[in-house]
């Protein structure tokens, strides 16, 4: 039996007021946000049921609902009320779906996508603008032109802001693209120029985090994604976003989620190069995926890569044990053979007995990457409705 | 310019009360815990300064302090009061350091450690009991015997509970060792037998998470560890714990933090086998580390392995971008050559310009792994002092 050495007591000196650390502000519990999120999830819905969902008194909900109505975020929908019963009729509330909008932007290597989304993250109208080795100024000008066009075409919608999603390392707080190796952008400010060019509140964020925020708000697996989720994006850049206890992790300068070890093995550039070696030219992976539906050689390229991705997914599942892991990759999202190969690789590694329920395709592969940008703005709205509408009001 | 297809509206039906999900209980903000943690961090400290730190009124702090005094968790230390000033003298509060204790247990492959710790996580007395391929019943009996001995030797201390730290996959909520490949334990209940054998409130948890909780409470980098931290444990089992926004992540059944991909490459079993091939027999890595101080061949074994660990650390830093990453591995903690090799490998991978401030040795390498067990109980105490002392009161 080995005796352990006892620990040393520390000197006992009283902490004085001057020794105290600086105070941190208390977190503001925003009941208005709780009500708005309940309308997002359950609208149209009566105020009495909102009170139950948000854990608030009827009087509070009535006040908060009045504020949201005044700001034009929700509306009353008498047509959705049920059959008349006893007492005063309940006029349900719903999101102001037709008079609000958010601009979602995604900057990809081969093109930029700009779309007007409704408050449920659905595309009202949008377009893709191809580009080659674009400068930040060109991208900003393109965004501003499309935003102006979309706002002119939809004057009935109050636009809450612009969310710009970009791959690589994006410092969300500073609004700067720190490093996008394929675009060759380093320390490129994007928030300030886009805000200046559009006159709208602008938020910039990594696309994987934007998509994860959209999954939490509107995705097929939103409930699980709000608890704990990992989002793996495989394209020209490869990155990971994750949320634990519902919060998307950023890290200082938003530097978390980099997976350099995976980039070389599975990036879209490599896939396009291997396709080119087979004589198939494609602008991006999405095109290649469509071609792969009728070309077994291309299908095999996707399948091979999916085994590598499967090994990475196994590592992420082991490490995070998330309730759901979303994969945004054209092969996995669209080609059943590829999806099966990835899941088979995962099963072979012995981690998950049945991964099909945990490892799922992105809810937005069919939509547009502009949803990633929309997730960035709309997440702000649902986290703090008063701040976003205040910013929108002052910047238009 | 490619036009995007607009999204489809969803049918608008009002959510009825019967459609609402089950209500979740609101989180209880425990002010008593805030006061106790402030005493842990800053004691001895006057009530007026506690009020500032915890963001509470003087009257609330006075009430809460009375409750903590009554439960015997804090004490008044008039001898720590400063020079007399105007008005009523402030009698500072401090932790009841001499009359409280927690039992910390660590179950390793070659031995079990049992120690009595004070509320600051320092060892009062403890011992290591060697074993070989032990059964859970043997381990439980050994723990109970030592707990009885320690309590008899220190009758002045109220023991709050037992924290048992084990490597591998431990389901903390169920108190079960789900899988410890080296011990060969699968689905072994440990919480219930130890609680029954000791008559004390018992908590079981993975050792990496126990050590991380101890780092957050008492470690050299506690302030950063409370924000975001990764803890890498390299021994006979290799596992990772991480905390984001201050909360240690568990995942369903506490299954997060497994790093099977790393286990084969760097586990202690492999190192001991390579040392044996050189004709050096050691019971565990700690012994090997002591021998390596005078044996260049062993030092080289540790150094080689540290390069592999460095690559894993780079992956973890990229993915989590933690404020601090603690490594519990004898070479890194004790042998400067090994530590330099790991940091050099990390620097070579280009992630962190200067990792020495981020990637640091465990605060407890010099103490004892029993601190991991202590971290498990004491974390409960500081998270909710009323519940732990209630449990302790009913089970003794």
UniProtKB/TrEMBL annotation, chains A, B:
<dbReference type="GO" id="GO:0003700">
    <property type="term" value="F:DNA-binding transcription factor activity"/>
</dbReference>
<dbReference type="InterPro" id="IPR000835">
    <property type="entry name" value="HTH_MarR-typ"/>
</dbReference>
<feature type="region of interest" description="Disordered">
    <location>
        <begin position="1"/>
        <end position="26"/>
    </location>
</feature>
<dbReference type="Pfam" id="PF12802">
    <property type="entry name" value="MarR_2"/>
</dbReference>
<dbReference type="Pfam" id="PF00480">
    <property type="entry name" value="ROK"/>
</dbReference>
<comment type="similarity">
    <text>Belongs to the ROK (NagC/XylR) family.</text>
</comment>
<dbReference type="InterPro" id="IPR000600">
    <property type="entry name" value="ROK"/>
</dbReference>
<feature type="domain" description="HTH marR-type">
    <location>
        <begin position="32"/>
        <end position="79"/>
    </location>
</feature>
<dbReference type="InterPro" id="IPR036388">
    <property type="entry name" value="WH-like_DNA-bd_sf"/>
</dbReference>
<dbReference type="InterPro" id="IPR043129">
    <property type="entry name" value="ATPase_NBD"/>
</dbReference>
<protein>
    <submittedName>
        <fullName>ROK family transcriptional regulator</fullName>
    </submittedName>
</protein>
<dbReference type="InterPro" id="IPR036390">
    <property type="entry name" value="WH_DNA-bd_sf"/>
</dbReference>
